[in-house]
């Protein structure tokens, strides 16, 4: 048995953005914690965000939310043998690197393991830029368990407490699938581990190790906060290969669904244990097979749990028809997000977004007929975008506003390290791992695009900003003029502190900031 402490680092926020990314419960870390505990290890968690959800400190262009690095290190117990650090987003690398350095300075006797999408996308970079001992790549549960099994076995053979752990990782990790480490001063990237075959055997997230209620109370949730909110995962992976997306590297293109009844079992457990009644699914694309979504919704209806659930991360539209939309609504489904990315067929083909116009608008019609909240995501500034492409996006936005969907979100393209587009831009000398590039994701929803965050080869930041506002305007004037009750509903939700759409979430942020400033001046 090893004594392992897992760390959820402080979060980086854009202090000026009105639609800032809200950190939420770290689902991946909770899954890894559960798997390590099932394997017999003693596991605890230091959750920097959950322990200090209101502590925000400005750090240059960004702000840090959560415990300080010093406070985190102080909480590492003396008998800890392994520290695991998650890093899902490369924009947080600066604080994650500082944390790794601080842990290694204070506790050189502790093995430091990193996992998550950042380490998966940039293993060599992470090993060279920090003193981390070993990185787990891709799906983390089996890799973490096997890594700890080997490390524990190696430790047992040492006659004295080992030193220079980083330089000796190869002694026990050689040939271990799914990890990266240093050997003789050079990174070693082992072959990736096969995806978990039976995901129903993975234990449910170890939420008892986290301050679940704190996240909900501070609105630190992903998606619309319809009620007491907890994240859930029903499927893993995505079968598509979009050039801008990190999923093919993190998950491969294998899409696997859990048993629908077991997912509902988990939801029912959270209803009874935590009083949860709102479940944003963290799936990359939950609706791929019609038979699965029908089985899941039917199971929810039969149990009558009186919950709401939503798909804030986006999903496919091909199987969303009248039958599916009816079942979604009756089972508590309230919000769907579609991500066409662009109204231009040429752009969708370029980015490998396999979404047809007919499929999208048929799905929208079906979902609206059953009063589902619908949002659409668009992105501007893909490499090679033209003004004609942006005009097509404006047309789609206007058409969606006329139909009556609830929201559109329009962001600017940023290259995610490890993706096809990033590698192409890197080869062309138009992208490198600077701090500006790593921070780009939290600035894509600023009021205007900054030059340092513009990766378009053809369009200026000013042009992209202009067409972004044209797209938003084309949507919202039709949405409000042709659906006049919407304004009254938004005002009512604002006064009651309720969220039913992304616009409601936006208005709640404005209200909170207004009263925070007034309190500060008083």
What would you note in describing this structure?
The structure is a single chain. With 522 residues, the protein is α/β, with parallel strands linked by helices. The protein has helices at residues 27-38, 48-51, 69-74, 93-106, 117-121, 123-129, 141-156, 165-168, 170-173, 212-217, 247-251, 260-274, 290-303, 322-330, 345-350, 357-369, 387-403, 420-427, 435-439, 461-481, 485-496, 502-521, and strands at residues 3-8, 11-13, 42-47, 56-59, 62-65, 82-86, 111-115, 134-136, 179-183, 186-189, 235-236, 256-257, 278-280, 308-315, 333-341, 373-380, 407-412. It has two domains: 3-189, Rossmann fold, CATH 3.40.50; 223-483, Alpha-Beta Horseshoe (pyruvate-formate lyase- activating enzyme), CATH 3.80.30.20. α13 links the parallel β13 (278-280) and β14 (308-315). α12 (260-274) packs parallel to α13. The chain starts with a strand and ends with a helix. The model has no long low-confidence stretch (mean pLDDT 91).
């Amino acid at each position: 048995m090893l004594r392992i402490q897992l760390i959820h680092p402080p979060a980086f926020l854009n202090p000026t953005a009105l639609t800032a990314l809200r950190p939420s419960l770290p689902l991946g870390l909770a899954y890894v914690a559960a798997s390590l505990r099932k394997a017999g290890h003693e596991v605890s968690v230091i959750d920097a965000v959950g322990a200090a959800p209101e502590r925000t400190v400005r750090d240059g262009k960004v702000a840090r939310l959560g415990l300080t690095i010093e406070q985190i290190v102080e909480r590492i117990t003396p008998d800890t043998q392994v520290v695991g650090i998650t890093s899902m987003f490369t924009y947080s690398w600066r604080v994650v690197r500082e944390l790794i350095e601080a842990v290694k300075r204070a506790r050189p006797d502790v093995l430091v393991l990193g996992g998550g999408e950042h380490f998966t996308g940039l293993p060599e970079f992470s090993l060279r830029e920090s003193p981390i001992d070993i990185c787990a790549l891709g799906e983390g549960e089996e890799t973490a368990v096997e890594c700890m099994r080997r490390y524990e076995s190696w430790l047992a053979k040492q006659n004295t407490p080992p030193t220079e752990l980083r330089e000796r990782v190869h002694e026990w990790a050689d040939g271990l699938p799914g990890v990266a480490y240093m050997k003789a001063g050079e990174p070693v990237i082992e072959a990736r581990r096969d995806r978990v075959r039976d995901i129903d055997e993975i234990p449910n997230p170890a939420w008892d190790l986290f301050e679940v209620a704190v996240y909900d109370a501070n609105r630190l949730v992903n998606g619309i906060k319809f009620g007491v909110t907890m994240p859930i995962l029903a499927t893993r992976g995505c079968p598509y290969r979009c050039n801008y997306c990190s999923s093919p590297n993190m998950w491969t293109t294998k899409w696997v669904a859990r048993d629908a009844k077991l997912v509902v079992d988990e939801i029912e457990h959270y209803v009874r244990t935590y009083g949860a009644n709102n479940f944003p699914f963290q799936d990359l694309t939950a609706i791929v097979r019609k038979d699965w979504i029908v089985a899941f919704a039917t199971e929810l209806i039969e149990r009558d749990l009186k919950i709401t659930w939503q798909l804030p991360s986006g999903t496919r539209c091909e199987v969303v028809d009248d039958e599916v939309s009816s079942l979604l609504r009756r089972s508590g489904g309230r919000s769907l997000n579609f991500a066409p990315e662009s109204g231009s067929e040429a752009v969708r083909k370029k980015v490998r977004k396999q979404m047809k116009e007919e499929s999208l608008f048929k799905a929208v019609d079906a979902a609206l007929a059953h009063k589902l909240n619908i949002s659409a995501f668009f992105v501007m500034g893909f490499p090679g975008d033209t003004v004609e492409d942006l005009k097509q996006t404006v047309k789609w936005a206007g058409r969606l506003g006329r139909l009556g969907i609830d929201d559109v979100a329009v962001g600017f393209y940023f290259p995610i390290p490890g993706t096809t587009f990033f590698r192409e831009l890197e080869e062309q000398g138009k992208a490198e791992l600077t701090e500006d590039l790593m921070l780009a994701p939290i600035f894509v929803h600023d009021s205007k695009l900054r030059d340092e965050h513009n990766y378009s080869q053809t369009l200026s930041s000013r042009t992209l900003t202009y067409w972004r506002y044209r797209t938003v305007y084309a949507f919202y004037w039709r949405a409000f003029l042709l659906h006049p009750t919407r304004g009254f509903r938004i005002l009512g939700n604002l006064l009651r502190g309720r969220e039913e759409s992304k616009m409601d979430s936006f208005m709640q942020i404005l209200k909170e900031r207004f009263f925070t400033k007034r309190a500060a001046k008083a």
